[in-house]
Structures are given as C-alpha cells and as structure tokens.
C-alpha cells in the first residue's frame, strides 16, 4: 500500500477533505488524485467511503447502536447520505443488513477494498 493509502487507513474517520491530505503530503490536489486513482483504480473519496462503510458494516452487525449514531461515528453528515452510500457499496441498506443478521444468525462478510 502506498503512503497515501496507509495514511487513509489509519485516519479515515477524521479526514474532512482533500485539503488535509494535500497539506500532509505536500502535493497538489490534482497530483494526489491522479496518483491515487492510478494505484487503486478509484478516487480518494471512493476509497475513504469504502473504509467508512466497512467500519459501519461491522457496527451495524455487531452492535445495537442506532443508525444515526453509526452514521455520525463513521463521519457521514446525514443519515440519508450514510444510507445511500452504504447501499451503493454493500447493495442493501444498513437496517436491512442488521435485520438479516439478527434473523438468520449469519454475519455478512466484509468486502475487500
């Protein structure tokens, strides 16, 4: 993993935007985005969202924390945006995953980033 990817994996819950990353790595936004996309095949934002949703997926399945709190804990501004992002990555809403796990006693496998 690149230094950028390693930094993102350690700090994804606290990253507020690309400006923070460009300051940390002392490169321009366009260079950062180009390097990252070339190495991973996805944008920085897509990667951060996947990290956040992977964390959220664990919380949804392992806890009874309300979705609004999970959304906030994972760095999403609104529950609606959290639900939309979760569904686009996992294929189902977080509430569906929680209910599925409880009723079927089956853990939904985490995905590769």
Using brief descriptors, characterize the structure shown.
69% helix, 7 helices, mainly alpha, 113 residues
Average predicted confidence as pLDDT: 90
Which structural class is indicated by helix and strand composition? mainly alpha
Assembly context of the chains: single chain
Helix content: 55-70%
Beta-strand fraction estimate: under 5%
Count every beta strand, where a strand is a DSSP E run of 2 or more residues.
0
Order of helices and strands: HHHHHHH
| Main beta sheet strand tally, sense and closure | none
Give the CA-based shape.
Answer: elongated
Number of helices: 7
Low-confidence stretches: none
Radius of gyration: 15 Å
Span between termini: 11 Å
Kindly describe this structure:
The longest helix has 19 residues. The radius of gyration is 15 Å and the shape is elongated. The termini are close together. The chain has 113 residues and is an all-alpha fold. Helix 4 packs across helix 6 and helix 4 packs parallel to helix 7. The model has no long low-confidence stretch (mean pLDDT 90).
